[in-house]
Write a structure and sequence with these properties.
Blueprint (H helix, E strand, L loop, with lengths): L10 E8 L9 E5 L3 E8 L4 H17 L6 H21 L7 E2 L1 E7 L7 E7 L3 E6 L2 E4 L6 H7 L5 H5 L6 E2 L12 E6 L5 E5 L1 H4 L4 H10 L3 H14 L6 E8 L15 E2 L11 E2 L4 E2 L7 H6 L2 E2 L2 E2 L4 H29 L7 H33 L1
Antiparallel strand pairs: 1-12, 2-3, 3-4, 3-5, 5-6, 6-10, 7-8, 7-11, 9-14, 10-13, 11-12, 14-15, 16-17
Helix pairs in contact: 1-2, 6-7
Bound molecules: magnesium ion.
The site of magnesium ion (MG) has 6 residues, from helix 5.
């Protein structure tokens, strides 16, 4: 039997969603409840995306409506939602290929260290936190353009207008299993969290998001204000925003804008799949620009993320450290074999002698080889 948080934390929130100025349907779904908040951005035609995001929201409402006893419990709810969407997509022909992104925030059980929040993410919807006027992204997008940004091929600005910005590398319902990124945050009085679909961030950059949040004291007004700005800037996609204010917890130092976020995200050695969020279909890596194809080379048709190379870099660095330590140790051992006193001048002499010895050895060795060659000839 799992336990849940014993009391409802002091939070205030607001939410807004809109179809936007281009799309005919709104496939986004959100949850804004005392213990759980989420934004899901559905993908798939014929209202399938709307069904997928609704399944995710319903599952989180049922499993996390009273908070979560642990991060694992919260992740299990997302995994369950993934399985339900995957099964639906493979059972109903008209829902084939449906999926959804999901970014969520759930209150964790108080385990003696104060109330905490767990942030969960799959896909390219985002969770931000605003503290002391500084906006920081908590989640990392699972998207093709995020790969290009992370590898320095394009800028954040270019990503927001990139023709392939709809391609996600992770989503619920696409595979029978799903990896969920998680972060744990303490309650800090005055923190403002923003959960949103890409319909906001593709139209409104982080600076403008921060400025809109700053002028609205009410979280509901802030959410509606952000949706309005997204539509004013183009409204190319459905846009959904949930704003949550923390009214309890520690007060952060006024001169500190740093956010101590416990990162539990690990991309090393993982495999992802590219999915076009608009078409809800797999994308062959060959369709992507050459630079990106090098970043996510496909073997067996499954793209592999560039972050795998981080392990190789760390491995090489480890080897270099081991070699350096070994050489240092050998030098120390050789110095220790010299019983003479060790003023600085004596060390120099010793070094010279060793060099001479080494040179002599090499000369001897070379001579031997030459002799051997001559004999053979
Ligand atoms: Mg979207």
């Amino acid at each position: 039997m799992t336990t849940v948080p014993s009391s409802v934390p002091a939070l205030a929130w607001g939410a807004a969603t809109d179809t936007g100025r281009v799309r005919s349907e709104n496939e986004d779904t959100f949850i804004a409840e005392p213990m759980v908040f989420a934004v899901a951005d559905g993908m798939g035609g014929h209202q399938a995306g709307e069904i997928a995001s609704a399944i995710a929201a319903t599952t989180l409402h049922e499993r996390l409506g009273h908070g979560a006893a642990s991060v694992d419990v919260a992740v299990a709810a997302v995994v369950e939602a993934n399985a339900a969407i995957f099964q639906g997509a493979h059972t109903n022909l008209d829902q084939r290929g449906m999926g959804t992104t999901l970014t969520a925030m759930v209150v964790l059980a108080d385990q003696g260290s104060g109330a905490r929040l767990a942030v969960l993410n799959v896909g390219d919807s985002r969770t931000y936190v605003l503290r002391n006027g500084r906006l920081r992204r908590v989640t990392v997008d699972h998207s093709y353009v995020q790969e290009l940004v992370s590898t320095g091929h394009i800028t954040e600005y270019e990503a927001r207008n990139h023709p392939r910005r709809n391609i996600v590398t992770r989503a619920l319902g696409i595979e029978p299993s799903v990896r969920v990124d998680t972060w744990v945050l303490p309650f800090v009085r005055g923190d403002r969290y923003v959960l949103c679909s890409d319909g906001l961030v593709d139209e409104v950059d982080d600076d403008e998001i921060a400025s809109v949040l700053a002028v609205h004291a009410s979280p509901q007004a802030a959410a509606e204000g952000l949706v309005a700005v997204a539509n004013r800037n183009g409204g190319r996609d459905n846009v959904t925003v949930v704003v949550v204010d923390s009214l309890e917890g520690d007060t952060p130092p006024p001169d500190s804008a740093d956010l101590e976020i416990d990162l539990a995200w690990d991309e090393r050695g993982r495999v992802d799949r590219l999915v076009d969020a608009d078409a809800a279909s797999a994308v062959a890596t060959a369709e992507l620009p050459a630079v990106a194809a090098a970043d996510v080379p496909a073997a067996d048709g499954v793209p592999r993320r560039r972050r795998v190379s981080l392990g190789a870099v760390l491995f090489v660095m480890s080897i270099a450290v081991i070699i350096t330590l070994t050489i240092t140790l050998l030098l120390v051992m050789r110095n220790n074999t010299d019983n003479s006193p060790s003023p600085t001048t004596t060390d120099s002499t010793t070094t010279t002698v060793k060099s001479t010895t080494t040179t002599t050895d090499r000369t001897t060795s070379t001579t031997a080889r030459n002799t051997s060659t001559s004999t053979a000839g």
